[in-house]
Fold:
Amino acid sequence: MIPKLDVDTLTFEQLAKTIDHSLLRPELTDDDVVAGCELARRYDVASVTVKPCHVALAARLTADSDVKVGTVVGFPHGSHTTATKVFEAKDALANGAQELDMVINIGALRSGQDDMVHDDIRAVVEAAGDKAIVKVILENHYLTDEEKVRACHLAEEAGAHYVKTSTGYAPTGATIEDLKLMRASVGPDVGVKAAGGVRSLDAALEVIAVGATRFGATRTEGILEEFKTRL
Structure:
């Protein structure tokens, strides 16, 4: 069971461990990744989420820390074949990834091909085995509420560890309404991750208050430093 955090008693360490520090922008250089991993280590966040080409570098930079290395699968559109997603997952694991954020096949879900969506997720979960947790990105901007609920159910049935709102590259990201819906649509053993638009401490506290136990952030330092001033 993933415990819900209480924003009224939240500690600095707990807040830091809800953050996946995001280093996914396409223009980021190796130097940017080094700086981002150093920041992640300094604040002891949950993970640093990097592009697949940077997994090995991030794994070396965080090897003696409690910061996990995450990467993306089928990113950002989810339209890769299942075999390609499985290859991506295995390659990431071989390079040191410990968390995989995979995008569902959005068009398949909207077409009512639930078995395909389930099997696509399940294949990545099986590839991860006990080496990594799998977070399933729904990309809610393109889905109806009914489709979001179905996607949550399919992700849970397929063995995913988290459901996640968005890639950050659709026109909209995490919303409070979506987070509430997703939290209500999965059991207590499945976490909910907010991604896209969590750029301030107030926004972070708001998503935690409705049940998010992870959120993606590029403004990690600003969020955590602001929290220090409120202690």
Q: What stands out?
A: Strands lie at 19-23, 47-50, 68-73, 99-103, 133-137, 162-164, 191-194, 214-217. The domain at 12-230 is CATH 3.20.20.70 (TIM Barrel).
